[in-house]
Design goal:
mainly beta, two-stranded antiparallel sheet, 21 strands, single chain, 9% helix, 18-stranded antiparallel beta barrel
């Protein structure tokens, strides 16, 4: 089946009916990750995968259309030792659910998107499996496959403004082959204990004013309510932006916490998360310089880590290759990493250089400091090049005091080739 799908991804675009729109991406991805604890090498892992996406969209008839997107990632020369397999381009989430070590190296093939839609100049509606992008819930297509949601999303457009409403009841993480109930994916085996129910849904309401001001509200009944806002402007050649995040526990989860739920060894009296950020950037010919700072407050006795269980990376200080790599894993909603932890001050500097129309380079450094804890430092670099329709990229990430643990280090290297059609 997987070989047949790869064959179809190559051949179908050559034979497409003009009434149908065929699009897709072929991708080859190699990744190596090396971890150290002090002077001890604790884990080396790697993976090589080939796959991509094949999308078919029907011709619009009175604004109505349908879309199907096949997705696949297939491991090549997968190591027989599961501990040496980097599942971030294969099946890391499958392993997180099953607990079977060897599942990390599985290949994945599925229909990642399948929706019907309607669109005109001022309105869009999609119903079914689909990609979605927002600060706290997103497709995060930075590895082999994107994350996708199941439900419905609509958007109204008027005079440069956008108003959106989305209702999602299922979520597929990018290293999973299954759509799980979206509440279950967030809390896993703790779903019933924390929320009093086994299933739930995510409701998102959004406003975008002239692409300058954005406001998102995320609500999961009996779990949490979250508000995200940002605003951007410009002065004297500088671009600037500010952001804010507020999250709180609601309903059953809020009551349960106030009645004595213990998270990570500490009794919590509800959940309260507040975070703010500032970003400045300036472009000079082919160069762009970016400076960002974020701070997440630590509220006494409350759970105050940012929760982003649906592949959102909202902070201005998120690094280009991601210091919060997999906190969206099944059941991992409350297990925050680095810059998302309460009390963390994040600082980031980035430099982008457009060497030519075909080649560009980005280097970024970020630091996440919680005062008494070790400060994590990230250094990221990307060089990309366009060649005969292919996008080729070399990426590297170096992390010191990984997860804010003194002496722990991480190195990661990625070679990526992708061809869009």
């Amino acid at each position: 089946m997987k070989k047949l799908l790869l064959f179809v991804m190559v051949v179908v675009p050559l034979c497409a009916d003009e009434q149908m729109k065929i699009s897709g991406k072929l991708k080859v991805y190699n990744i190596g990750t090396y971890k150290q604890s002090g002077s001890v090498n604790t884990l080396d892992s790697n993976a090589l995968a080939i796959g991509g996406q094949l999308g078919v969209t029907t011709k619009r008839v009175s604004g109505l259309f349908a879309h199907v997107n096949f997705m696949t990632t297939n491991g090549l020369f997968v190591d027989s030792d599961p501990s040496r397999v980097d599942g971030s381009i294969l099946a890391k989430d499958i392993k997180a659910v099953s607990g079977i070590a060897s599942d990390v190296g599985k290949s994945i093939t599925l229909i990642g998107e399948a929706y019907t839609g309607y669109e005109n100049e001022s309105f869009m509606l999609k119903v079914g499996r689909q990609k979605y992008d927002s600060p706290l819930a997103a497709q995060k297509e930075v590895r082999m496959l994107p994350s996708t949601f199941s439900g419905s999303a609509m958007e109204f457009k008027m005079s440069g403004h956008r108003f959106g409403i989305a209702y999602f009841d299922k979520f597929k993480q990018r290293t999973s082959d299954r759509f799980y109930n979206i509440l279950e994916h967030a809390l896993g085996s703790n779903t019933q204990a924390y929320t009093g129910k086994d299933k739930g849904a995510l409701l998102i309401a959004s406003v975008d004013v002239n692409e300058k001001f954005r406001l998102y509200n995320y609500r999961m009944e009996a779990f949490f309510n979250a508000l995200y806002v940002d605003y951007k402007g410009a002065f004297s050649g500088w671009e600037w932006a500010v952001q804010g995040i507020y999250q709180e526990s609601i309903g059953y989860f809020d009551t349960a916490m106030k009645n004595g739920v213990t998270l990570f060894g500490t009794k919590r009296q509800g959940m309260k998360v507040t975070s703010a950020g500032l970003k400045l950037s300036k472009r000079l010919d082919r160069d762009k310089y970016t400076f960002a700072v974020t701070h997440t407050a630590d509220h006494a006795d409350a759970y105050s880590d940012i929760i982003a269980p649906f592949d959102g990376t909202p902070l201005f200080t998120d690094t280009i290759t991601g210091n919060n790599l997999f906190k969206s894993l099944y059941g991992g909603a409350l297990d925050a990493d680095s810059g998302y932890k309460a009390g963390t001050l994040g600082l980031k500097i980035a430099y982008d250089h457009q060497a030519s129309q075909k080649m560009k380079m980005t280097v970024a450094a970020a630091r996440f400091d919680r005062g008494l804890d070790a400060a994590q430092t990230d250094i990221n670099g990307v060089i990309s090049y366009k060649l005969s329709g292919w996008d080729l990229a070399v990426k590297a990430i170096f992390v010191f005091d990984n997860a804010q643990v003194a002496g722990d280090k991480l190195q990661q290297y990625r070679l990526i080739g992708s061809y869009k059609f």
